[in-house]
Amino acid sequence: MADEYDYDLFTIGAGSGGVRASRVAAAHGAKVAVAEEYRVGGTCVIRGCVPKKMLVYGAHFAEDLVDAQHFGWTIEGKRFDWAALRDHVQNDVTRLEGLYGQTLGNHNVTIFAERAMITGPHEITLASGKTVTAKYILVATGARPLVPEFPGSEHVITSNEAFHLEALPRRILIAGGGYIANEFAGIFNEFGCKVTIANRSDTILRSYDASLRDRLLQISMVKGIGFLFNTEFESIEKQDDGSLLVKLTGQDPCEYDAVMVATGRVPNTEGLGLETVGVELGKKGEIVVDAFSKTSVDHIYAVGDVTDRVQLTPVAIREGQAFADSVFGPGETYAVDHSCVPSAVFSHPPIAAVGMTESEARNSLGNIKVYQSDFRPMKNVVAGRNERSLYKMIVDAANDRIVGIHMIGPEAPEIMQAAAIAVKAKLTKADFDATVAIHPTMAEELVLFK
């Protein structure tokens, strides 16, 4: 395309957004290069949603093996080998990393396995000292876990290290109330660890519907997970036996074998040279972009968690696709619609949601209808497990349009993917009512609300 530059596009960061943007741009005929200082695949593939979901699968067997007895199965000599699961997961991560690299290679994208920084207009300098130029630069460096500073904070781990533990901790404290904290709490609890969640507020999963938050809290406590609210770290002291003596505000000192911090994530914008060319950053260090992912500098774009919009892998992928199509494709420029994005928490049991919560709908629309189904899944009934699922549908009373669906229960995320299409398409409660149920399923509750 542009002969005066070495590349049409140079992408910094080979995570989900960067890989998609680079691949699509190359498919449109652009000459593309990517720099990645760690491993191709980014947070999701290497140290995020993919390996975490594999651990979630492994954790589910703890209850499934117990429930199996009620279905006629006799299982003797069962035991759990953390190292075996950990290594299987890491082997698959390596396999996926290879596939991502192969995809870029198949599209003739040049990969530089080193750090890169912007050193001037259209100019990138690699850690090796090599300097290249590009007509467009895309920053897709993602985000990293935030570790607060306090005496002894060097002893904590984050979700990054949780995948590589030599052994499972007998007692683990997890700081945070978001999806990462609750997901790992469920995982470690099912693996036999004594889990305590410490949260600086009195609410977990604050962006989710209150009914689902309360239900997960109740179920988690029944499963043996402890909760400490309105508390923050004062200090951590490593003792002679290797245990950690943790002092939290308002709490007596308590010993743990590991402390995991899941108190948020910060954009990876340091050391990229953004200030060299005048790229505007937000208060949290995020790159400020417009609807089309363009920064304050015309030839520099950014997608994914480094922009602090919606920090979800599928969103980063869509942003990367939209950028590549708009800048390098033959069609018209278009932007990603960040509204009505479905999400899930892979807790035990999982949560899934799309659209407005009940509170948001009341504040925004005023007159709404709320339909709810509180039931015990058939499998739990047979297994003698009292755990109940909860489905909610929020409807705009003015036009019968469904503006939100919220679920907690087995396979909720799998069910939500299809239901989210209906909410995004602005279907009505009458449309759901007119759909015949698949029986017996949990999902049929969505078309049987009264």
What's the structural blueprint in terms of helices and strands?
Elements (H helix, E strand, L loop, with lengths): L6 E6 L3 H12 L4 E4 L6 H6 L1 H19 L14 H25 L3 E3 L3 E5 L2 E4 L4 E9 L3 E3 L13 H4 L8 E5 L3 H12 L3 E5 L11 H13 L3 E3 L4 E6 L5 E5 L5 E3 L1 E4 L3 E3 L6 H4 L22 E3 L10 H16 L14 E3 L5 E5 L2 H8 L2 E8 L2 H6 L5 E8 L5 E7 L3 H13 L4 H5 L17
Parallel strand pairs: 1-2, 1-6, 2-3, 6-16, 8-9, 8-14, 9-10
Antiparallel strand pairs: 4-5, 5-6, 7-15, 11-12, 12-13, 17-18, 18-21, 19-20, 20-21
Helix pairs in contact: 1-9, 3-4, 3-6
Model description:
This protein is α/β, with parallel strands linked by helices and 450 residues long. It is 32% helix and 23% strand. The chain folds into three domains: 7-144 and 266-328, FAD/NAD(P)-binding domain (3-Layer(bba) Sandwich), CATH 3.50.50; 153-263, FAD/NAD(P)-binding domain, CATH 3.50.50; 349-447, FAD/NAD-linked reductase, C-terminal dimerisation domain (Enolase-like, domain 1, 2-Layer Sandwich), CATH 3.30.390. The chain is built from 13 helices and 21 strands. Strand 9 (194-198), helix 7 (210-222) and strand 10 form a beta-alpha-beta unit. Helix 1 packs parallel to helix 9 (313-328), helix 3 (49-67) packs antiparallel against helix 4 and helix 3 (49-67) crosses helix 6 (179-190). The protein is globular. The relative contact order is 0.13.
